[in-house]
Specification:
Helix 2 runs antiparallel to helix 3. With 154 residues, this protein is mainly alpha-helical. It has a domain of 49 residues. It is elongated and about 115 Å long.
Length: 154
């Protein structure tokens, strides 16, 4: 049996292949497993997100239904609507005032953290708005709103 003599280059290439082949196989195996895992987790996340949005939609419809029932069971609104349909123009203002006072729920307080530099807003009840500003700029804050500097609370 004759001994085969390999050159240094051939020995180096062989050594690189022997070392790299297990690394490549391990990489491909882990890549496949990780891809399957990520796909599975993504589907679970999408299913959970879908359930949340479905719940929000049901909540919206339930709230709308409750509001419709509230309006339809209120005799004052029914009578006022009937008067409007009969042509009594003065009933529009009376009914509008009644709905604004008794049926529209406006929060007692609204808290905003801002730099005061954004677009101006025109709230319905600016006295219920509390602004916490990161810089001393009150250019876009509605009159009657209360504002504070965040630096005062550090």
């Amino acid at each position: 049996m004759e001994k085969r003599h390999l050159t240094l280059l051939q020995k180096t290439v062989f050594a690189v292949i022997v070392v790299a082949l297990p690394l490549i196989i391990t990489f491909l195996y882990n890549y496949k497993k990780n891809t399957e895992y990520i796909k599975g987790e993504t589907l679970v996340d999408l299913a959970n997100t879908e359930l949340v949005y479905e719940g929000l939609i049901y909540q919206f419809f339930e709230k709308a239904e409750n509001r419709v029932q509230d309006f339809s069971s209120d005799g004052y609104i029914r009578d006022g609507t009937q008067k409007i349909l009969e042509g009594q123009k003065s009933s529009v203002k009376i009914l509008s005032d009644y709905i604004s006072k008794n049926k529209l729920n406006y929060p007692k307080a609204i808290f905003i953290i801002s730099d005061g530099m954004g677009n101006s807003v025109k709230p319905q009840k600016p006295e219920n708005w509390y602004w916490f500003l990161s810089v001393n700029c009150i250019r876009h804050i509605p009159k009657k709103s209360k504002f504070y500097n965040l630096s005062d609370f550090e």
